[in-house]
Amino acid sequence: MWLRITAVFLVAGAGLLAEDSATLGLVIRKGATVSAVVRESFEADTALGVQSSFRDAKWVLVWRDEGSSSASESYDRLIVVAFKGDCSTVMPKSAYGNGPLGWTSTSGDRVLPFIGIDCDRVKAALMAPEGWPHSIIPSGLLARALSHVALHEIYHVLSERKHHDAEGLFKAEYSPSDLLAPVAMRPAGLAEIAGLPKR
Ligand SMILES: [Zn+2]
């Protein structure tokens, strides 16, 4: 009888944890033009990725444009997102240049809630044969690649980690097939998400 009661409590406890929700506000900074169709897929892919990869809470993503967000809104975490470069579906002529596909702002040891995604570099990285070496990329594929980069940077902010893992979402370099993977990568080791109310 005691065992049965204990089991009931455990199940109830697990159910309660899974229902804990946290809101993540994402404010898109004015900058590079991202078409409505790319933006819509990007937001959907990023939300799915956050929900499947960061399982410490049931994340609800709220997207706002910089300037249109109301001061009365509050979120558990807030991240400002900037796009840079040519975010259209026209691919570059060659895979020119190297450099980070995205970035997270830091100050000393602190990770700041500002991330960026470089559309030119993401598209250049996709020019490899196993990527998308064609002149136009479907908006859903571009959105997917951009969202993989965003997820990586969002994880830097939420976990307040600067160092990378060897594998998974938090590895330092993504291949073209990583960028086009239909499912978000998971962190190799789940880091604690900083700043959430302790249970
Ligand atoms: Zn990184």
- Roughly how much helix do the residues carry, as a percent range? 25-40%
Following the backbone from N to C, one meets helices and strands in this order, namely HEHEEEEHHH
Poorly predicted sequence stretches spanning 5 or more consecutive residues? 1-18
Sum up the overall morphology in one term.
globular
- Widest sheet: strand order? 2-1-3-5-4
Give the number of DSSP strands: 5
| Oligomerization state | single chain
The small-molecule ligands in this entry are: zinc ion
Number of helical elements: 5
CATH topology: Collagenase (Catalytic Domain)
Share of β-strand residues: 15-25%
Q: Which structural category do the helix and sheet elements fall into? A: alpha/beta
CATH class: Alpha Beta
User: What number of domains?
Assistant: 1
The CATH architecture designation is 3-Layer(aba) Sandwich
Cα distance spanning the termini: 29 Å
Describe this structure in words.
By secondary structure, the chain is α/β, with parallel strands linked by helices. The chain has a single domain, classed as Collagenase (Catalytic Domain) (3-Layer(aba) Sandwich). 35% of the residues lie in helices and 20% in strands. It is built from 5 helices and 5 strands. It has helices spanning 2-19, 36-53, 119-125, 139-159, 176-180, and strands at 21-28, 58-65, 77-84, 102-107, 110-118. It has a 5-stranded mixed sheet. Strand 1, helix 2 (36-53) and strand 2 form a beta-alpha-beta unit. The radius of gyration is 19 Å and the shape is globular. The relative contact order is 0.17. Residues 152, 156, 164 line the site of zinc ion (ZN).
